[in-house]
Amino acid sequence: MSTSDTAITNTTEAMGLGGEGFAIETFDLTRRYGDLVAANHVTLHVPYGAIFGLLGPNGAGKTTTIKMLTTMLEPSEGTARVAGFDIVQAPSKVRRMIGYVPQALSADGGLTGWENLSLSGKLYGIPRSERKSRIQEALQFMGLTDFGDKLVKTYSGGMIRRLEIAQAMLHRPAVLFLDEPTIGLDPVARRSVWERLLELRRNFQMTVLITTHGMDEADELCDRLAIMHLGKVAAIGTPAELKASVGPGATLDDVFVHFSGGTIQEEGSYRDVRATRRTASRLG
Amino acid sequence: MTSAQPGVQPAVWAEANPVFAFFQQTAAIAEIELKKLIRDPTEVLARAVQPVLWIVVFGNVFSRVRAIPTGNVSYLSFMTPGILAQSVLFVAIFYGIAVIWERDLGIVHKLLVSPAQRAALVYGKAASAGFRGAIQATIIYAVAALLRIQIRWSPLSIAGVFAGAMLGSAIFATMSFIVACIVKSRERFMGVGQLMTMPLFFASNAIYPISIMPHWLRIVAYLNPLTYLVDALRSLMIGPGQSSHSIAMNFGIVALIFVIFAAIGTKLYPSLVR
User: Taken in order B17, B23, B29, B31, is the CA torsion positive or negative?
Assistant: First the structure.
């Protein structure tokens, strides 16, 4: 298939990888913690090559869903297929097909960028013959070539995030999962992360699933969204479809409020504040 | 602006031999821990003070008291392997804190989402704890040389002591890892860590022989991995006369405990991110 060299594009359908099946397909995916149903019969279909956003207030079940899709957590009920493999039947096959960037800035500050990448390369079994060129390529792709031998604790937040994406793409996963990839980053750094994700999709036909609180992020980056509320998928569609379903002139903020039955939490949870502080203290 | 090659590249290559992969992954984890240790040895150096104080202060005082029967060796010689085992224990027993820290940062999540074998991740951590054990052994030998404490200096005995210290460190780090997987928070971990340290130390033969303990405490001591570690280190450092088991027997027991702990740790590791 051919990829266009046009600038940031949000068209999704033409980007399917081979076109058969979905990159992510969930079937009544459910997780209970005691009486709490953190994810309640979640059914999603994410086409290959899509950038898919999971939105929802804190506690809506986004993280639980991503944990199940990345095989960290077994579903209580239901299952999912990721890149063609069942997360319950074949979790180790799924792990070879996916990349994951956690919410906190988790690259190792005591190591250099290169060493962080080299560790990923070894854990993912990238053969020695290929490892070096992959690392160089990933550093270049993420605009970090000049910083490869610097300790990560000297990096800015945006650089750490880009390094983490480099780590997660080193083995060319079919599906990349990012849990709130731009939380705590300044607007310039956020935009640069978006650009890299769009380029990853363009160059490698990677499917990307992110969770986010940022309506601007959902609007500009994602070509399909699911809004989760109380463990359920409350709405699903393209940003335009979702806006149209709420009413003429509606913004994504309106959509969010409409489907999550409340007000937008402005990054307000204790967890977010803590995560942001951690980011700040790592950089300070 | 990018020169990355467009086009789909294989996400999966031929799966490596699992045994080879296990060693490669274990070495990869151990290697990064070693690098960090060399770059920032502050913690390890600070940890060196405690065993020195034990030998210099406690050891010298108790040598004068002559309250502890140590046969035909001086009390300082008798306690030196015990203090090595103790410092290995103290260094390793709080290892779990780092694991909880890694959990809070999302590092554990990243590792568990990777196709790396979970056992390799645990053995890699244990190996990196082993380096810390080796550093403690170096310190103890330095103190022994400075204070002219009578111990064996044969290369074979020194090699054995280093192996013992590394294995001991791996055991207690893995024990700590298991606790971290269960308690999952730093606050609780600190409490439990403190709770474990003292019984492990005092219900062992580290600074007095088991023969002077009351019967019930002997039973505890024989269930304590530290006892076998001290027993092995003591035969290696001052001769077999002070030990209840052979060196091979002690190493066998210690290695078996490690393998069991590592298996439990491997089983529990994924629960850290649930």
Answer: negative
